[in-house]
């Protein structure tokens, strides 16, 4: 490659719901991976409320409450911002929301959404979409695009990367704290190695700690 040539970055599609602390951890890892590997993350929304809407009766009360109007609000505002102001605002708004919801432990309140919109320079009027179903069809299409790649038995995040024989998609990885630098690179390389292996489905062990937002 000559000095005038620019290496093309590999697109990495990442589906998130702002509610999920584990997806937030993984997203911060992907931000690190962008610094150490030739990848470019493309952010997409999915919805835990949509994922669980047909099995709410099976969930504990705390989750049923979270996946009600409170759970719909952030993702509806993100999809509305995306539709009205372009794809490039999606990741920025997610970062502003996630930092407040998770790192600052403020939760997915309307005040948090308003603060995040202001930080990114988006109109305050977008907050009205927290209670609007105007873009729900687009939200569901985005959600289905991600979940259809990995199946209904997973949640958020979903990651999809172009492979030699088609896209390689997977749920996770679930990790805490966020790997940085070369540690982030090693996890990325290893994740792609196992995920791209034909017939590979799962590695898992019991979580012994919660997400650490360091």
TrEMBL record:
Keywords: Isomerase. The keyword Isomerase applies. Transmembrane segments: none annotated. One of its GO terms (molecular function) is isomerase activity. The keyword Isomerase applies. This is 2-hydroxychromene-2-carboxylate isomerase. It comes from Streptomyces avidinii.
């Amino acid at each position: 490659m000559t000095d005038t040539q620019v290496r093309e970055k590999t697109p990495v599609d990442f589906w998130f719901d702002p509610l999920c602390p584990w997806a937030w951890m993984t997203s911060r890892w992907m931000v690190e991976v962008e610094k150490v590997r030739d990848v470019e993350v493309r952010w997409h929304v999915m919805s835990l409320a949509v994922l669980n809407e047909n099995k709410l009766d099976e969930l504990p009360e705390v989750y049923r409450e979270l996946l009600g109007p409170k759970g719909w609000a952030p993702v509806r505002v993100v999809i509305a911002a995306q539709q009205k102001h372009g794809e490039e605002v999606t990741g920025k708004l997610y970062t502003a929301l996630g930092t407040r919801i998770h790192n600052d432990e403020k939760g997915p309140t309307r005040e948090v959404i308003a603060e995040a919109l202001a930080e990114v320079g988006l109109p305050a009027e977008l907050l009205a979409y927290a209670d609007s179903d105007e873009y729900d069809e687009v939200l569901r299409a985005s959600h289905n695009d991600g979940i259809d790649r990995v199946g209904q038995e997973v949640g958020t995040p979903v990651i999809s990367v172009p492979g030699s024989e088609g896209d390689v998609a997977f749920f996770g990885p679930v990790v805490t704290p966020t790997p940085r630098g070369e540690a982030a690179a090693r996890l990325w390389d290893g994740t792609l190695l196992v995920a791209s292996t034909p017939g590979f489905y799962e590695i898992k062990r019991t979580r012994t700690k919660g997400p650490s937002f360091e």
